[in-house]
Amino acid sequence: MSIYEKYVKNVEKFGRLTMLLGMVAMLLPPMLMTFYFGFNPGIVAIITGTISQISVSGAFYFSEPISYYPIIGSTGLYMSTLSGNSVNMKIPAAVTAVEASGYKQGSDEGSLMGSLGIAVSTYVCIFFVVLTSIFAQILINYLPESINDVLGLIIPALYGGIFAQFTVKSYKTGLFALVVAFIMTKVVALLPGNLTFLITLVSVFSTIFFARTQLDTINKNS
Question: Does residue 56 share a domain with residue 162?
Fold first, then answer.
């Protein structure tokens, strides 16, 4: 067993433990509110809210681990899942760390670099979350309305930055992803119910399949 394999084995052991502790920590407040303080919205409201949330983010349970693993490895998945802010902070930090290191994404070294990027971003995130929790609301109240409107564009900008990094490497795959996502938004708009998760599900897996066919074509021609 190589050093990296031993490292991954230890990560999985402690990762499972920390994930279980994280689940307990997240469930503790609502459990206390329900069984200790007696505040409960009712089973109907709970089921309705659960279905609504699953319809929006249920696809991420499958798509995010598959799409993020080549960048951050198992270590990064454990950290990003537990600490949150995967898309708007952890993944950009991991991609930047891998790009700066010069290692190939999907390699053992690249996964380690991505994990280091996530680890650093987690500490930075904790620092700024504490800081902004204390001072942000005071500052926002004094900001002009035009600045507050611009702040809403941060997430789309991060998505665009990550998309551009990968599109530069394979413009055909990037164009394919754009076309599929555009078509799916139109299709989902015609379907009854809130089925927006289908956009992510179909776009991610169809793009993975298309990228794989591109790699097969390159390998055959080489």
Answer: yes
